[in-house]
Amino acid sequence: MQESSRNAGPGLRADARRNLDRILVAARAVFAEHGIDAPMATVARRAGVGVATLYRRFPTRDALVRAAFAQQMETCARALTEALADPDPWQGFQRLVETVCELQREEQGFPAAFVAAFPHSMMEHAQARGRVERDLMILVRRAQAAGALRADFHPSDLAVAVLAHCGLVTALPHDSAASRRLVAYLLQSFRAEAAHEALPPPSALSLRDLPMAADNSQRPRPSRA
């Protein structure tokens, strides 16, 4: 189901639905070109609608970012569910990392949107947030118990990996080879057989520390210990 259909509602007029489609297409293009801090007025101009029309539909930048990349966010949430269901915990973990990175690579505006909006698009309430964090911990512990994931892997390492890949694809949006190579390096370093030396202490960063607001123009900043 397309985002316009989800947002539209059964009573939305055809012209309003077309406006919504144009806004979401324009938002993805503008965010890809100028980042998610681009002025809302730029999105409105690209979509061919008035700024007031844009704000009626999306009163905040955060709401627009989430709507523009809702399909990708849903794919991330589904990937976590599928990873937990995989009988091979390492395969599940690996596929989750690869799916997130593939989405960051394929949609140029998505890397910054993912960092800005995740985990909030997947966890709108505290209960949902706790469930996602619990599921990630279960996945990590299962892979460690299977002897596949290094014992000193910490959940914050996943957040660090997401930020590292985000930086790469933002700087080199058309270099898919570099993206795939980085992901392969990261996954190899996570394997238990790669744990030849002790790592420094883990970061204080967690998934909930990834910037939660696209409408406050803040760049990613990890929390400090």
TrEMBL record:
<dbReference type="InterPro" id="IPR050109">
    <property type="entry name" value="HTH-type_TetR-like_transc_reg"/>
</dbReference>
<dbReference type="InterPro" id="IPR001647">
    <property type="entry name" value="HTH_TetR"/>
</dbReference>
<keyword id="KW-0805">Transcription regulation</keyword>
<dbReference type="InterPro" id="IPR036271">
    <property type="entry name" value="Tet_transcr_reg_TetR-rel_C_sf"/>
</dbReference>
<feature type="domain" description="HTH tetR-type">
    <location>
        <begin position="17"/>
        <end position="76"/>
    </location>
</feature>
<feature type="region of interest" description="Disordered">
    <location>
        <begin position="201"/>
        <end position="225"/>
    </location>
</feature>
<protein>
    <submittedName>
        <fullName>TetR/AcrR family transcriptional regulator</fullName>
    </submittedName>
</protein>
<dbReference type="Pfam" id="PF00440">
    <property type="entry name" value="TetR_N"/>
</dbReference>
<dbReference type="InterPro" id="IPR049445">
    <property type="entry name" value="TetR_SbtR-like_C"/>
</dbReference>
<feature type="compositionally biased region" description="Polar residues">
    <location>
        <begin position="215"/>
        <end position="225"/>
    </location>
</feature>
<feature type="DNA-binding region" description="H-T-H motif">
    <location>
        <begin position="39"/>
        <end position="58"/>
    </location>
</feature>
<dbReference type="InterPro" id="IPR009057">
    <property type="entry name" value="Homeodomain-like_sf"/>
</dbReference>
<keyword id="KW-0804">Transcription</keyword>
<keyword id="KW-0238">DNA-binding</keyword>
<dbReference type="Pfam" id="PF21597">
    <property type="entry name" value="TetR_C_43"/>
</dbReference>
